[in-house]
Amino acid sequence: MSIHKKTLFKYLIPFSLVAFITLYTIYIPFVNAGNSAYSITEYQCVALATIDGNWTTADEWNDGPVIEMSNNASFTYNVDMTSYSMQWLIEFFTDNTNDTEDYCQICLDADNSGGFAPQVGDYKIEIQGHTTLKIYQGNGTSWVETSPIPGEITWANTISNSTWNNATHWILEISDSSKIADTIQTPVPPNGMRVAVYDATTGELASWAPNSNADVPNEWGVISNYSTTPIPTPTPIPTATPQPTATPSSTPTPSATPTHTATPTPSSTPTATPSPSISPSPSATSTVSTQPTDSSTDESTSPKQSGSFTIIILAGVVITAILIVIAALIIHRKYAFDQVIKTIKTV
User: Fold this and answer.
1) Which of 143, 244, 267, 310 is the most buried (most CB within 10 A)?
2) Which residues contact 112 (CB under 8 A, 6 or more apart)?
3) pTM greater than 0.85
4) So what's the pLDDT on residue 148?
């Protein structure tokens, strides 16, 4: 019996460690979901945009976070919580050429489960060559083209200038009629999301999350939460700057005291009172107008979020069980072999 115990500790413990390492190796990659270092909030829109490829008004898209894909490209995203319409504005500031190889992509991971390949709950909206809409759905290993419900996707793009940039460039507006119905369904956050644009003339690819791959959901950004109230609207810079011109109004006040020629000292005090007018608080808050405060510029490497991984866990359990059975068989054979050797020696 002592031989059996020694054999047990000699073989079962190493095999248990191998089983644990195997399970850990399989499990860890799949608990990672989208890259939470790049997270945004899903905001309620003030009003649905007019999808025509232009800023219909100068503040049409001020109700969403401005998210940089690169120094040359940005986008914003928001939702109408009543109809559950999703809408995006995507601008590529340095692209004003009409190349058939150009594209814009929006990738969505319905449950932010991540993965190393597109899963069934992953979708890709792609505008090819500024003329063609393609929709894809994952199948566990790759993308498969599918068809949206008629009227589900509305989009338009033009070469124009915008509130964000005065140069003429490609502007894309796109909306999905409902995030909880039809072909593309992305329920309550967290959801994974990736937005990317490509200019064939320059070869520049800009994406959020940065350096992400459309085929690897683990690398996408994350819609981490939502807000049923619109994003706080910043005070526009132009309306704040004219206010310091009110300071000349302080100079006429000494003119009201010329009758007191013997008391010129009060004339110095009115010049001290304009100091409050020099500090117009709106000019300080106008810096909020940049709006990319939703950690879109955060370069940290924080842990990734977990997603669905039941199948992977079951696979790990099965592999662990198989390794333990193998260990038990080896132990049994070793014990039997030792018994045979012992018998031979006694003879």
Assistant:
1) 143
2) 33, 34, 189, 190, 191, 192, 222, 223, 305, 307
3) no
4) 95
